Automatic annotation (TrEMBL):
NCBIfam families: gcp_kae1, T6A_TsaD_YgjD. It catalyses: L-threonylcarbamoyladenylate + adenosine(37) in tRNA = N(6)-L-threonylcarbamoyladenosine(37) in tRNA + AMP + H(+). Its main location: cytoplasm. The gene is tsaD. This is tRNA N6-adenosine threonylcarbamoyltransferase.
Amino acid sequence: MEKENIYILGIESSCDDTSAAVLCNDRILSNVVADQRIHAEYGGVVPELASRAHQQNIVPVVHQALEKANITKEQLSAIAFTRGPGLMGSLLVGTSFAKSLAYGLGIPLIDVNHMQAHILAHFIDEDNHKKPLFPFLALTISGGHTQIVKVSHHFEMEVLGETIDDAVGEAYDKSGKVLGLGYPAGPEIDRRAQLGNPKAYKFTKPKVDGLKFSFSGLKTGILYFVQRETKANPNFVEENLNDICASIQYTIIGILMDKLKLAVKQTGIKHIAIGGGVSANSGIRKALKDAENKHGWTTYIPKFEYTTDNAAMIAIVGYLKYLKKDFSYFDVMATARLKI
């Protein structure tokens, strides 16, 4: 007897992207993302503007996701949504919508931890994509988070180390601001880094114990470096931008890889997965591939569309929780801070 298909609608609204996706079991039928370009004018996400834009986007985005998946809302088995962490105003929009729709349809509601979702996106069933073997180490790198997580099973995770101050994505954006680049600066630094000399300038790596990260000192070091050099030559940044970007990226990737190597040494686990917005970076992807060959690691690198905030990763967690009948009560609340 053929088992019945499970259709999960995922809703993601943790920051400035409104996204909805539909899964049939563990395969993607649709993954729609509406980004908010307005924040580029301010050099960062403005929470009030983000929540307003979510209110405008959520209905058309969900409608489009269902339409692309070629199913009706009545066929849905459950609705999964991002409970946190994230911006409170943004989370409230997605949470309220998910609750209302699930209640109206009389189907289960499933709350999802955004950081777990970045890791479990690797379990979306796609051709030519290998799923991580347990246990594995996950490096979650984004604008708000930098963590190394030991993943023993889908919902058995332990944070081994995280940043004590700024996240790696923030280090990219703040460095980009110093260099006069637009927001978000990460993709532009990555693009220019490929054209420059990574050893043109040396930046000091922060000395932090164990598997903890720190990026505030590096940001300050880059700021002072640029101020010092532009004082001597006002055109310094313009004349050396590719080399500066390459050197910044080389330092950041060095910090991440040093900690990963230490985590492998401490745990003996050689299966490594990455997730989060910064995992789209070409330098970190290449460094992981090089480590695979050099150290005998097995690495798992997500498709670009699953690196930034998206609802497909929320929906796959929803599917995995649905199989366990791990449903939420309707009084579940969004929370800006939520631990793995």
